[in-house]
Amino acid sequence: MLLCTGLPLFFMELVLGQYTSLGPNIIFPKMAPIFAGLGWGMIMVSALVSIYYNVILAWAFFYTFASFTSELPWTDCDNDFNTPECYLLQEDKVCKNMSMFYYNQTCLEPDAYCGLVNLVSLNASHCYDPNENDSLVVADGAVHRITPSEDYYRNRVLGVTGKTWEDMGGMQWELVGCLALAWLIVFACMVKGVKSSGKVVYFTALFPYVVLIILFGKGITLEGASLGIDYYFLKPDWSRLADTEVWSDAAIQIFYSLGSSYGGLITLASYNKFKNNCMSVRGRQTAVYSRRRNSSGSVHATAAG
Predict the structure, then answer these.
(1) β-strand 136-138 against 126-128: which pairing, if any?
(2) Which pairs count as long-range contacts for 202-211, CB under 8 Å and 24+ apart, including other chains?
(3) Which of 9, 30, 146, 226 could pair with 260 as two cysteines, CB 3.0-4.6 Å apart?
(4) C-beta neighbour count of 270 within 10 angstroms
(5) Same structural domain, 66 and 37
């Protein structure tokens, strides 16, 4: 997907933007009036993605501030915001060793555990519905339980447990503040237009690799890391390549990673010099944002959409 779809589209959008010095909402109507909606569609998609990505950034800020504690709040079920469904894998293993099940921070007998969802215990691993024949249910999946990290996200960060459209609860002011901070940073990056955003790219493009290297180093030292390495590098499941969903997921990831078909590449490339080599490594850095003069000496105004 990267070689056959992503990179060709990436290069084509750089060429279109650099050659015309126009944004997507202007370039497509000039190329073919029937495609006028394509450029505006790109702008709308970019606007929507920017809005919900900033919400994700707000969550990231929330977690960043919450991590400045001696013990991370999403590692156990002992907090005020935790629900009875919160369970720890290690505690669950302890209960299973006693032929019991972990729920609400205690070990329950199979009868009591299955009874939480109006089922009857058959044995140490299965429940069944007495009102239906052949209705065996694996006990582990019979009762809805969530990990501490999911419980923290749903109940502490979002506060959505038990909420309905009729009663959506109050405002999460901490998230409001984090979202305001996210938009403030975006404003600071764009306050001087494309020139300042070009400098920001040097950080935003390189910093993720630093984080990925750190996470990789941490990940390979965790218990069970060898299983993932063995799966991906030594025993890959090549039959998955016949699954169309795998290719669909790959295409989605490539388009997100490269930013193709969102209009941003065309807009940024429109600020390149007309004769910039956008195939070279330096040329692909669309941070060469300066107005160029045309052959008559007048300033060539660029339209970024």
Answers:
(1) antiparallel
(2) 202/287
(3) 9
(4) 26
(5) yes
Annotated binding site: 257
Q: Phi and psi of 136, rounded to 5°?
A: -70, 135
Dump the DSSP string for 154-210.
IIIII--TT--SS------HHHHHHHHHHHHHHHHHHTTTHHHHHHHHHHHHHHHHH
Average pLDDT, the chain: 85
Please give the annotated binding residues for Na(+), written as ranges. 257
**Cβ neighbour number for residue 264 with a 10 Å cutoff:** 24
Say if CB 98 and CB 126 are below 8 A apart.
no
Distance CA 243, CA 229 (A): 22
CA proximity to 173, closest of 52, 74, 62, 83: 62
For 84, what's the count of Cα atoms within 13 Å in the CB-facing half-sphere? Answer: 10
pTM metric for this prediction: 0.73
pLDDT tens digits for range 204-232: 889 989 999 999 999 999 988 988 888 88
pLDDT score, position 253: 92
> How many separate domains does the chain show?
2
Residues 66 and 191 in one domain: yes
Answer yes or no: do 118 and 240 share one domain: no
C-alpha 72/C-alpha 153 separation (Å) is: 13
201: containing domain? 2-71+171-284
% the chain with pLDDT above 70: 91
pLDDT band at 40 (very low <50, low <70, confident <90, very high): very high
pLDDT value for 167: 82
Q: 106-108 and 120-121: which strand pairing? A: unpaired
- Asked whether 266 and 17 are in contact (CB, 8 A), the reply is yes
141 pLDDT exceeds 60? yes
User: In 3-state terms, what secondary structure has residue 294?
Assistant: coil
Q: Cα(first)–Cα(last) distance of the chain, in Å?
A: 28
Considering only CA atoms, which of 118, 96, 121, 102 is closest in space to residue 110? 121
146 vs 217: CA distance, rounded Å:
28
Q: Which of 259, 206, 220, 212 is nearest to 53 (CA)?
A: 259
